[in-house]
Every structure is written in C-alpha cells, then in structure tokens.
Amino acid sequence: MQNKRITADKFRELLHDGMSIMFGGFMGVGTPEYLVAEIMRSGVKELTLIGNDTAFVDKGIGPLISNGQVKKVIASHIGTNPETGKKMISGELDVQLVPQGTLAEQIRAGGAGLGGFLTQTGLGTVVEENKQTLLVNGEKWLLEQPLRADLAILLASHADEAGNLTYDLTARNFNPVMALAADVVVAETRDIGALGSIPPVHVITPGALVDHLFMEAQ
C-alpha cells in the first residue's frame, strides 16, 4: 500500500507561483490551518484561491490574503475579512463572487467531468454578466462553468493509512466535494490510523481521491 504521509518540506514542493488552490472551510471552520501556514512559509505568490469565503484576517485562509500571496479569489462572500475587501477596492485582488449553491455545484461539476450546468440563480443580476444564457422549454437559464484546481487542501478529523477520511460535524462543509475537483489532494488530519480503523460506513471521502496526508507533528 502506498505511503500517503507527507512532510511539510514535501508539501511545499507541490507549490508553485500562479497555481490554483481549493480550500475547505466555512468562515475558517474546516480549513487546514497548518497547510495554510506552510503555503505562507513557502512564499509562493499570484495564487488563485477557490472556497466558500476568506474567513478572517488571522484565521482560515485569511493570512494568505493579508500576506499578499493571492491574486484572485473565487468565493461566495468576503464580508468577514475586511482585508479582502480593501484589496479588492484598491485593485490588488481580483474577487469573483458566486452564489454559494452555484459555487458548490461548479466544484461538483468539475469533479464529475461535466461541461457545465444550468441554473436560474443570478439571472437579471451582475452574476449574469458575460455569461451564456439558454432557453429551455421557454424558460431562460444561466450556463455556469465547472471549476477545478491544481491543488485542494482539506481538513479531516481522522484518516487511515489508505487516505480514507472522516470529518467533524459542520467542519465537513466543502471538503468532500473539493476532493473530487483538484489534480492533487492533500488532507490535514490530527491522526492517521491503520487501514480499517474507520468503519466503511463512516468513510466520507474515499482514499482513492486523496494523494497525501499531512499531520502537524512530523
């Protein structure tokens, strides 16, 4: 069985300027903060971040925004992080706001290999600008494109050696769907048990989707 454990040094080797990173989390809950710290430590820049929100200045993905390593954010809201708003207004940061359900479905579509999907959310608003619309049975629909990323960083509560993951309550949020939609998937976890230590019925993200496992103490 492949050893999926990865050190901080090896994780940083996966990073490069200009890459796109999906991150789990909802206002920082479910975001792998040790992996975020390693991204900061690496010094990579011009990143595109894809996630529900930019959390807070000092929590979740927020420190990467404050540190000037991000060029674009695709998220459903930024209201809890004033630094994101400041950088957007000044032109330092490109922010693309997406309705939350649409964002989740874009990621799912990217993971499922779909060419896009139709929704009426956002019709007649700024969400519709520069996007294709279609008439279906006489109704207008907005075509949304799928989203994928170079890397997804997840936060799991438990993992086994094969990379099977489970999550704590609402910290699950965007993590499982992002495991499907990135070229490389790294999961931060507080422990890694033997194969079979997670009952199959409790596995939320199967190990086949997880490339690397990261633990704080290495």
TrEMBL record:
Keyword terms: Transferase
GO function term, MF aspect, one: butyrate-acetoacetate CoA-transferase activity
Enzyme Commission identifier(s): 2.8.3.9
Enzyme class (EC, first level): transferase
Keyword Transferase: yes
Keyword Ligase: no
Coiled coil: none
Gene3D superfamilies reported for this sequence: Glutaconate Coenzyme A-transferase
Family to which this protein belongs: Belongs to the 3-oxoacid CoA-transferase subunit A family.
Name of this chain's protein: Acetate CoA-transferase subunit alpha
Organism from which the protein derives: Citrobacter telavivensis
